Amino acid sequence: MAIITAYTMNIIPLFPIPVITCDVELEESEKSFLLGQYPDRVEANRGNLTSIDTKILKNKEVKSLEKKLLFLINDAFNNIHNPQFKCKLYITQSWLNFTGKDQFHHRHNHPNSIFSAVLYLKTTESDLIEFHNSHHNDNYEIVSNHIDIFNSGSWQIPVKDNLLLIFPSTLVHSVPNVKHDSLRVSLSFNTFFKGEIGQPSGLTHLVL
Q1: Domain of 116?
Q2: 183 in Cβ contact with 38 (< 8 Å)
Q3: pTM for this entry
Q4: Distance between CA atoms of 85 and 106, rounded to whole angstroms?
C-alpha cells in the first residue's frame, strides 16, 4: 500500500543573495593604463599581488571608466533595494589584483562596504571566482548526487575579459590556485552610502 499517492512539493529560495553580471566596454588606453601598473606598481597580498594605488579609479586615465562603473553599480543597487529616500552609492577604494601561476586570492569579504565589484581585465578560459555559503552547515557532510544552490557550501562562477561582477560586500569569496602560465588581472572596488537611509519614525534615520 502506498503511503502517499500524490503530492506537490515547493522549495522557496528564501532570502537569495544577488550576484549581478554584465559586460563592460573598456577603451584600449584605459586597459593599457591599468595593466601597465604591473610589475613596478604592485605589492604583496595574501596569496597574490595587488596595486600600490588603492584608489586606482581616481586617476585621470580611467575617469570615464569610473563613471561607467558607478552608473552600473547604482543601477544594480536601485533594482535590488528600490530605496524610498534619495540614496546612492559612491566608490570608496579601488585596486588591481594580479594573480600568477600557483598563486591564489584568499577567502575574504569586504568590511565597511555595501556592494563590491570585480571587473576582469585579463583572464583565461579556466579562470573563475568562488563564492562561499556562510549558512552552510559544516557539522556534518552529505555527499549529494546533485549539487545545487541549496546544498552547496560554495559556488564557482566562470569569468572572462571585460566581465563585471557586482555582489553584497558581506559575501565571502576567493580564487583557487591558478594553474595556467598567464597573469590573471582584475579591478576591484568597494562602495558606501551617500544620502538618506533608515526611517525617521523608526528612529533609524541617517543622513550621510
Answers
A1: 20-133+153-207
A2: yes
A3: 0.94
A4: 37
